[in-house]
Structure formats: structure tokens, C-alpha cells
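assembly run, all chains below
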Amino acid sequence: MDYQSIINKIYNEVQPEVGKGRVADYIPALRNIDDHQFAMAVVTVAGKEFTVGKTDENFSIQSISKVFTLTLAMKDIGNKLWERVGREPSGTSFNSLVQLEYENGIPRNPFINAGAIVVSDAIFEGRGKTKNRILKFVRELSGNNTITFDEEIAESERIYGNRNRAMANLIKSFDNLTNQADDVLDIYFHQCAIAMNTLDLAKSFLYLANSGIDPKSGQQILDSRMCKKMNSLMLTCGLYDAVGDFAYRVGLPGKSGVGGGIVAVVPNELAVAVWSPALNKYGNSYAGTKALELFTTYANNSIF
Amino acid sequence: MDYQSIINKIYNEVQPEVGKGRVADYIPALRNIDDHQFAMAVVTVAGKEFTVGKTDENFSIQSISKVFTLTLAMKDIGNKLWERVGREPSGTSFNSLVQLEYENGIPRNPFINAGAIVVSDAIFEGRGKTKNRILKFVRELSGNNTITFDEEIAESERIYGNRNRAMANLIKSFDNLTNQADDVLDIYFHQCAIAMNTLDLAKSFLYLANSGIDPKSGQQILDSRMCKKMNSLMLTCGLYDAVGDFAYRVGLPGKSGVGGGIVAVVPNELAVAVWSPALNKYGNSYAGTKALELFTTYANNSIF
Amino acid sequence: MDYQSIINKIYNEVQPEVGKGRVADYIPALRNIDDHQFAMAVVTVAGKEFTVGKTDENFSIQSISKVFTLTLAMKDIGNKLWERVGREPSGTSFNSLVQLEYENGIPRNPFINAGAIVVSDAIFEGRGKTKNRILKFVRELSGNNTITFDEEIAESERIYGNRNRAMANLIKSFDNLTNQADDVLDIYFHQCAIAMNTLDLAKSFLYLANSGIDPKSGQQILDSRMCKKMNSLMLTCGLYDAVGDFAYRVGLPGKSGVGGGIVAVVPNELAVAVWSPALNKYGNSYAGTKALELFTTYANNSIF
Amino acid sequence: MDYQSIINKIYNEVQPEVGKGRVADYIPALRNIDDHQFAMAVVTVAGKEFTVGKTDENFSIQSISKVFTLTLAMKDIGNKLWERVGREPSGTSFNSLVQLEYENGIPRNPFINAGAIVVSDAIFEGRGKTKNRILKFVRELSGNNTITFDEEIAESERIYGNRNRAMANLIKSFDNLTNQADDVLDIYFHQCAIAMNTLDLAKSFLYLANSGIDPKSGQQILDSRMCKKMNSLMLTCGLYDAVGDFAYRVGLPGKSGVGGGIVAVVPNELAVAVWSPALNKYGNSYAGTKALELFTTYANNSIF
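ok done. output:
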């Protein structure tokens, strides 16, 4: 079965699941989204694209952006980042302060909020400059120059961001934040508010399926060893506190966001993105997780 | 033995202990204090005063101020405060965020930092107005109109206050802070920076030894039942995570601060204050704790 | 108002509260008790006794027994016990293993289960000998030679004692248990199963109100300083995780058990015991706590 | 470079690392092992074997045995096991009781001690019968009928097993243990004491590289989907609290034991086992981890 047939089949099968779960409601700007939407896109390293559903509808990528900023930090300082952030699954909720307190302000991994805040601090060069760099990077990866921040969501994140603000200040109290908490949070709130569509999301992860090389431009985004390591980090830490469940059911390195997007990578073959806003109890897209589980079943391409 | 003889005797006995331990060093403004200072003052409800050592030297009362703001909050809203703050010993460090996260932003008691921040929020009526009210209250209790904030210390608290800022934002994320975190922290940082001397401190706690009535003015600060409750709170929660040790060794309701002050109350009889800046591992004055232990031994007046 | 009038008045007032809450149900042997029972007894150091309700009905004293074994350990090894057990409120549930794990097998205080297990280990001299000694001690204190273990309850504790067994083995894994876990637990399960009535319970705590001297026999059970310390421990640690609440509402050193008994001490004056089997959410007698709150209000004799 | 050349090269390169770290010392029976030993074996699904070092020296496989018992449980009850055990990385130490207490006796995953104890309970059919079944299974997988329990180690585990005993009793207190704690622990202590050599270990994991089929016998040990899931579990939970680090550096599903063994799987291709007794701070073989990192680097066969 070719990928188009597979995702068509999945599209039909997941219809009863679309809308199950609950959309993210921690900020008003996300609360009112229509929860009956679904999109799925596959792009291969060979350059083929397969789509089904609303793959040109923009959504808030939220935590998926942590992969982009981590990639930038890896390019900038490489393994030195690991002096400031761990690489282990957290075993606790993505926004927990407990682990930070017990472990002296060193976040467990770069994909929990605390870790991503440290990563944003590591690449900080001024509010405007850093935000521009992130946007430029995502635009290049996706090939879509219209991708931008949803400022309404960024502002909503800021207003309701007391817990992230607590986290940034706690990290700073342990001297693990170089810049001002509010400056770093401005980057963090904006990266979470990047709006892009499902197809562009799949495209922008393709370098992780291609030994670190963007197949469009031929540009080496990460060296091949670092690319493998990025995938391993996504597998062990990318799905909040459902990494074990996701690895068990889907079996691919991936990253999710509370906007309902999930993107995953089959090394040397493809990137696959899904989007459906209603979330399961772990904060991952309900229908999206199901769709990816079917995908590795039908395509028989989990990494295990 | 009369109280003057007792404290003279204590003064001599604790000399070898004065300077043991370490002065608070979390802010530069406290770090350089001469650690070989000691003062002790006893004031009775009958109006007698007994002093030894540097009892007219001002110091930063720090957490002792939490008793003053709690008293104001009790006057304002009484038992309604307990919807927002617990009354149990924390079992964890005074500046821990763990308990807050596990217990939905309800601080365990009003004497840990998080609890005092909520109390400051409860009495907040604007930065200037609230600070003036606190100052006026302490001046009336002590009878000393020159008592004021040490603005250098308050500013140092602000600059190095990332952990308290983390705490305030975490509380706010649980909707247990009505005002802006920075506004409430301004009150909190200033109340900690109240500078007063050991004799004034003893005087200003005398209402708690006198069924809630200030013996100088005859004014009812707290009703007699609430006064007992305040004492019980000091006994179970007033000494950071050394309440058990302090109750075991001293046996009086008391409150300590990292400036090296400790003040305690013998109900219906007296208030006793000590000051010596070097702290034991719990953050309580090393020599001060020792002096109070000797005091209840020689005067045989622990509440047990 | 004399004590008899006070407790009569309390008896009437608490009737609507008797039966509120839930009887302990963790072992079948306790589950079926009639929850509409109430008794209250006051005995003074001067030798007066006042009773109301079913004060000659035996009940399972459970954790109240921890005061008896701690007294024996204090007599045996005094302050050396504190190398093995702390003296701070736990801040967590009475049967938590978390604190033990974080603090290397040193229980936070002698009144949580883990601490009482270490105390039982400290006085262990063989199963039979130790149980006999405890029984003899309680009989002497109460003057009632018929007091004995309820073997059905002791057996039920053993059968359903997996959590205590976990605790004892965890303590042993940290080398803080000298004897075999099962031997120590045999003592522990039996001491919890001591059956006595409310009047005898008040009598057997009278030494703690009398500077450590049993007023009947004139025997010095504990020296006067140690007696005060025991009272301070009860106040800061004696009511599970409701010590702050109990100190706030009642204001006396006391100890409760899940059998529905609570006993408290007014230093130099009296011991007061209540019993009513239905428990509040903290595991303390619902009506009993209320009765003691009224007692210190009417008699105006809290220690604060 | 063929596999023999690769492991020869690795053998030379890791020599300076062999002996670094510390051998397990929690039981006397493991303490005195010569820490300068090293062995590495690769077996392919095509039937080739490559060895270097002391690959015929028996050692205690310890936690690696958890994969064998989990496989048996999967065969017996399949996904029903997940009602009793989670599938997420623990984020805490392999022998922690904290997580158990907070999560009602449901171990976070089958590879921490608590989880393995529940798995042993799930396959329990009597002490002798269960131990025989485990031994028979390992003998069939490895093709070596002399593999047996090291009874001295099993007895040492029992004697010093207070923490595991605590764990089993805690699990039982939550009704998540069907059989007697001591019976289940007898299985657990014995499975940890299986002695086998590095080559046999690699052979006995080959079914996990071969879609669940033992290539020697052609027998389907696990169906192909379940085999993938087992590999995903090893990747996310198999290396104690160093799963992230191992995935980052090695990039293969694997399982380690404190006896110094580690075995890993390249799906569809091979199983690789290493042994070197000195452990890094996470409890994984120091030289063994290094050797596997070099292996996936030189063979370029991590799953990412």
C-alpha cells in the first residue's frame, strides 16, 4: 500500500475519534478552536508529498517549536548545552517545578517547559533578533515565507503565563538563566505561538529523517550524529509524560504540542505530521496519536 | 532568680557560642554583618524591662515581620484567611515550591515564605499605603516612631529575590494571588527589611503575651482567642523546619528571622527577644536559640 | 464552672457531632464498631476525677500507645534515641514511606508509624518480654490490672499490616532497625491493640501533667525536663498531619489514635481523655476533637 | 568493516576504561568480582556469531532477567499486564518507593524493581514451578542447558533484600500483589541470580531482533507487534535512570544489569551483549556502555 492509500485509510478510520478528548483551555486564545478538524501529511526524503484533510490550515505549534530552538542551540553550542539541561525523561508533568527544585534548577530535558526556557536563554541575542532568527529558520525549513507568530496567542501566553514565569524565576534563582526572565519568556511565548500548517510542519522536520540535511536545499542543518541524537531525545522525552505510551504504540521519534499537532520521523525515509486539536489526558492530540499508531502499523515502519 | 540575673547569667554562658554558625548570605546587604554580636531583652506584661548586650542596635527582622502582617490580616478578615493558607507545619524548607505545586498553590502555613506572600496579598491596598500601615503598626506596638525600612536591604531582597518571585508567580498561577506579583513582593521585601532593635522587638510582641492587649496603650490588638491561636501557630510553624527542635529545647511559641533575631512569648507573663546574627543549619540564630533554651530552663517557664 | 459541669455541657453540645465522620476501616476488627459512642474523662493532678458518657467502655488505643513506648525508650536511652528518630512534624501522612526514603530511614518523629516502629525496636528485648513490659507499664499508670491486648485486633493488624511491614523493611534497609522486622512489628501491632477505657486513659497520662511524677504512686516516671519535652513532642507531632489544626483549635499537647481516642494534658493541672470512634479526614476523632476544643474554651486552659 | 573487526577495535579502545567505575556492592556475593574483565558478543539473525574477550565467563545477569520474565508475562496475559504496571520511564531511581506511594502501588514500568516484582507475581505458579519455567525459557533461548541460578547470589539477595521486601509489601498493601510477598520475592531473587555468559546472553535476545521469532528453532516467542513493543519498552525504560543518556549515546533498545551486563538489539539484524563488572553512577557497566556507543558509531546502526 502506498502512503497516499495508507493515510486515506487512516483518515477514514480515525473519523470517529476526531473531537474526542478536549482542546487546550489554559489560554483563551486556544479555547474556542473547532475540535472536529483533522489533517495528516507525509513527506519523504525522496521529495514526495502525501496529504489528507485540512493540511493547509494553520494552527499553533506550541511545544513542537522546542525542536527548532533546540536545533539552533545545538548548532550554536553543541554538547555544552548539556551542562545546563539534562537528557532524561522527566517522569513528571511537563510544567512541574518539583524536579527543578530537587535538581538545582537543571531541567530534566530540553522538551519540558523548563528545559525549553533554558534553551531559549541559550540562543538569546535580544528579543527582536532572536525571534527573527527562529522565524527565518522555520521558514527555510518549511519553504514557506509566510509563517509567522500568532501575536494574539503570544499575548495570551504572556498574560496567563504565571506558571512559566514561576519556572523561569526559579531557574534564575539557581543561576541557570543568563538573561532576564521576562526577555527569555518573550522568546518562549512567541515560539509557542508559531502558526503553521500540517504539510509545512512535516516538511520542516524532514532534515531529521535525512541525516540532518534539508533535502530541498541540501543544507546540513545538523551533522549526522547530532541528528540521530535529536531523534533519540524526541523518542525518550518528546511526548510529555506519555513517551513510553507513544513509543509503545507508535514507535517513532516525535514531538507533540498542545495545539493538537504531532510530528514524527522515520529515519532515512520520511517525516509525518498530524493535527487534530482535541487532546488526550497527556496533552497529546487524541486522534493524532491514533492516526500515527495506525500509520506505523500499516506502513510497518516503526524504528523497533 | 530575677529576670535580670537570669539574662546576665545567660549572656555570660552563651559568649562561647556567639559567632558560631553562619550569617545569612543570600543577599549582599546581610552578608557583611559582624557575627559576634548578641543582645537579649525581656519585657513583662507588668511593664518591667530587662536587657543585656546590644539591645539598642538595629537589625533586619526578616521573617519575624510575618507575625505583624498576619496579625493585620487576622484583624481584617479573621478566619477567612484559612481558605487561602493552611495552618500546618510544612515539613519542608521555608522556601520550597514543591508543597505549593502538590497542594494547588495553598501555602502550608502563614510563616513559610509562600504563606507570608499570600498574607501580604490579603492586606494589600496599594504599595505605599500598605507599607505605611505596616510601619505604623510596628511603631505603635514598639512605641518607637523611628522604626523604618532599611531600603538598601529591601532593594537587595528585590534584586536577589528570584525564588520568592518564582513562588509568587506559582501562587498566582493557582489563582491564589489577587494583586500583581511584583506589587505583593514589594510589600514582602519591605516587611522583611524592617530594622529594629532587640528591646523594641520584645516590646512589640507583648500583646501576644497579654491576651491580645497592648499593655502600654490598653488597646485590643487581637481578641483573646485569636491571640492564643497566633501563639499556637508560632509554636507549630514559627521556626522554619526546626519547630520540633525549638519546641523540644525551648518550649515557647516564637518566631525567628534570618537576620538573627528570635522572639518568644510566655503567655500572661512576658515577651523575650534575642539577637545574634550567626545562624544554625535551620536558619535560626545559633546563640539565640541556645540563649532561649537556657532562659526557659533557668526561669522554668516553658509552656509545657 | 467546675470540670464536671463543663464536661456535662460539652457532652450535650457534641451530641449532634457524635457519629459524624467515619470509623477506621483499614482492618476488619475495627470496622464494625458502633460509631455513636462518646466518653470524656478529666483527672486532675490533685486526684479528682470527672466523667461523662461511656467512660468504662474499652476501645483500641492504637497510636496513643506510642506515648507509652516512647516514655519507656526515654527511660532506657534518653536523648540517644534522637540519633535514630527526628523530632520534627512530618508534613506528610502518618504512614508515608516517602520521607523515609528521602531521609535515609530516619523517621521524622516518634509518633508517625515509622518512628514508633523504631521506638519499638529500641525497647525490644524479645517478643514476650517486651509486650509484658508495655502492659505492666500501662497497668501501673492507669491502676487497672485488667488492661490487656485485644488479640483479635493485634492479629488483624498483622494480617493487614503490609504497609507497616513495608515501612519496617525499608527502615531495616537503611540499617535503622536492630531486630528482625517481624519481631518488631509483633510489638508494634500489639501495642496498637491495647484495649482500655477513657477514664483509665486519662489516668495513665497524668504523669505528663505532673512534671513526670505519677501522682498515685509518687513514682518519677520521667524527670521534669523530659516530661516537658514529651509534651512538646505531642504538641508538634502528636496529631498526625493535623497538629497545626489541633494546636490552633485546642491548644494542648495531645495524642490521638484511629480507635477514636484522644488524650491531652494541661501541664500542672490535669489530663483529659475523650473517645468517639468516628474520625475526621485527618484520622482524629471527629466528636473528640470538637469536645476538646470546647473544653479549652470553657475551662480557658489552653497552654497558649 | 565487518562485525569481528569492529568488536576487536572496540576491545582495544575500551581497555583503558575497563575497571573504571565500581562493581555492585549491595550484596557481598557480588562485591569481590574482578573488575578488570570485559567481553562482547554479536549474534546476527542470519546466524553469525562474533566474540571478543571473556565471552564464556558466567556472570550474574541481574535486571536483564526482567526482559525474560516480562516476555513470559506477555505470552501469558498480554496487554492485561498494563492494568498492573505502567509503561513510562520512572524519572526516579530503580529502587524508589516514592513513585509507588504516589501512584497507588502501580509501578511505573516493568523494568524498575517494583515493576519486575509485579511481573514475577503475574507469572507465579508456585516457587519451584515458576523458577523451573524461567530457567527452561532462558536455556531454550540461549541453547545452553547448563544455565542455572547462582544459589549463593540468590541467598545473598534474600538476606540483603530489605528494600525489595519493603517494595513488595508496599505493592501488596495496594492490592497489586496476588501471592505472598516472600513467595514472589523468591522468584525475583532467583531470576536476578541467573548466571550466564556474554555469548549466551546475546543469543537469548535474538528473538527481539527477529520479529519475535527465535531464529534457531523458528519458534514464535512473541508476535511481531509485541516484539516491537518490547523493544520500545527497553528503549524508554531499560537503562534505569539513564535511558535518555543511553538512547542519546547508543541509540538502541537495551537492558542492563548491575552484574555488569548490557544487551541491546538492532531490529532485523542482530543482538549484541557486553559485560564488564564496574558500573557507572547510573548502575550500568561503565566500559560496556562505552563499548556499545562505539559499536553503533562504527557499525552506524543505531535505530535513529
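The mean pLDDT of chain A is 95.

The two ends of chain A are 20 Å apart (CA to CA).

not gonna interpret more than that til we talk
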